[in-house]
Q: What sequence folds into this?
């Protein structure tokens, strides 16, 4: 993907969380510039590299600042962040605040999983979603989900799967896997369906329900995750994450 | 450096969609600037525990900073906003320029939206990356700065086998065509595309992850054999 941007004449910086990850990559690849105009860098530089003064350098040894500072890269046109965990998302937020004009791509970071971790011990607070993660636009989304449905008639258990697919500027397509790697488009919406809503859409497309009461009992109470509930939308700084 | 921190703290407190358009408080109010320096030097003097130094610092501060602070006019909105720092701190915005707002979907023609709605899921990894790039490039063009790209992970071996498969197929084709067109006679299997593909497909690399064979490389039909009569290979004659 970085190569495509390079063809446009852009400088791409691939960001890994910290210097240790960077050392591992350098050890594996043998270089931090895998191709022209593509550079691999750490979001958070080491304290020895980022300290402005001798005092910061010394104090950093005994404090949290030992992990270094988040420094933007002046020659970058586009940042692509990879392999960052939920605990490192605040670093990416700091990077975006320091350099807000450069696009920052969250590449396969599983943000949905990280949202679920917010608020747990040792993880950032849920406010991070309202403050920062809600601004992230899902431009390309291909998420597959596997489900199982119990039936009152043979075969009693039905395994099926679907995919939520979106390419900007298109809408969110709910697709049912029909086998042999083929998908049938079931519904397209401008707004991102909730996880439970996506399951309902896919299940209804199966058209195997024999009793509405039994189906609702099997499905259970309709619930959404905390970041999908409408009550929290007022706290969001943007609705980009669901449009 | 400490003054910068104050600017940042003030910016963080007043963070809003238009906060980048506002000048720092210290630039509006020279008294605030003076007080900041006063506290700074006073604090330093307290650490030094030296009365005379403290008095000297305070005196010089009042004489210089307050005068300069009052004399320097920074009316609202006139201070240059794009102000790169020579030693950038991670907490300070490098260029406090205005970030253009994204256009939103309503600005996109309906026909483009409908066409994008019908995009089919990718069938290969390369198609997947190409679609991801096209989507990201379109969003960047529309002014979005924070983008999410997500697709299911593929095993590294799968990706490697696909890449290697394509490269080797092209190499084999080019080598075979060169041999056949030069009418070289020798080991018949060395000039037989089919045998090379068979030998290649049985390699351990493809044994685990074999992608679908291209239709052009399917076992030859009788028409194909008549077109290439020089093929005297035993394996090919069995087809």
A:
């Amino acid at each position: 993907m970085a190569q495509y941007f390079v063809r446009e004449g852009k400088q791409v910086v691939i960001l890994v969380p910290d210097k240790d990850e960077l050392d591992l990559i350098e050890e594996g690849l043998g270089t931090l510039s895998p191709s022209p105009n593509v550079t691999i860098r750490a979001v958070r530089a080491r304290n020895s590299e980022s300290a402005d003064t001798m005092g910061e350098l010394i104090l950093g040894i005994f404090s949290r600042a030992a992990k270094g500072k988040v420094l933007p890269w002046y020659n970058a046109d586009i940042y692509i962040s990879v392999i960052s965990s939920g605990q490192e998302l605040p670093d990416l937020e700091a990077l975006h605040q320091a350099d807000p004009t450069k696009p920052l791509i969250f590449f396969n970071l599983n943000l949905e999983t990280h949202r679920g971790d917010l608020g747990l011990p040792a993880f950032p607070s849920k406010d991070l979603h309202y403050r920062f993660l809600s601004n992230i636009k899902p431009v390309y989304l291909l998420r597959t989900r596997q489900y199982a449905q119990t039936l009152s008639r043979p075969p009693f258990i039905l395994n099926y799967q679907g995919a939520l697919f979106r390419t900007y500027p298109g809408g969110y397509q709910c697709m049912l896997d029909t086998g042999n790697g083929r998908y049938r488009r079931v519904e397209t919406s401008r707004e991102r369906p909730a996880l439970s809503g996506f399951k309902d859409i896919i299940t209804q497309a199966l058209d195997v329900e024999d009793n509405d009461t039994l189906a609702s009992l099997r499905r259970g109470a309709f619930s959404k995750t905390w970041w999908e509930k409408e009550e929290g939308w007022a706290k969001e700084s943007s609705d980009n994450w669901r449009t | 450096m400490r003054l910068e921190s104050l600017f940042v703290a003030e910016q963080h407190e007043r963070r809003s969609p238009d906060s980048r358009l506002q000048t720092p408080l210290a630039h509006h109010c020279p008294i605030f600037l003076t007080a900041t320096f006063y506290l700074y030097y006073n604090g330093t003097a307290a650490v030094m525990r030296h009365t005379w130094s403290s008095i000297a610092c305070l005196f010089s501060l009042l004489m210089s900073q307050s005068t300069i602070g009052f004399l320097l006019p920074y009316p609202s909105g006139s201070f240059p906003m794009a102000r790169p720092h020579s030693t950038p701190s991670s907490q300070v915005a490098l260029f406090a320029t205005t970030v253009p707002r994204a256009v939103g979907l309503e600005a996109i023609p309906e026909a483009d939206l409908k066409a994008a709605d019908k995009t089919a899921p990718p069938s290969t990894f390369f198609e997947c990356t190409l679609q991801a790039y096209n989507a990201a490039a379109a969003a960047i063009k529309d002014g979005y700065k924070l983008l999410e790209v997500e697709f299911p992970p593929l095993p590294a071996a799968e990706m490697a086998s696909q890449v290697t498969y394509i490269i080797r197929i092209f190499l084999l084709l080019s080598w075979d065509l060169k041999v056949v067109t030069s009418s070289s006679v020798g080991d018949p299997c060395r000039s037989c595309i089919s045998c090379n593909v068979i030998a290649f497909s049985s390699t351990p690399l493809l044994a685990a992850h074999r992608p679908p064979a291209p239709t052009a490389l399917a076992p030859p039909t009788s028409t194909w054999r008549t077109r290439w009569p020089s093929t005297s290979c035993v394996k090919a004659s069995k087809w």
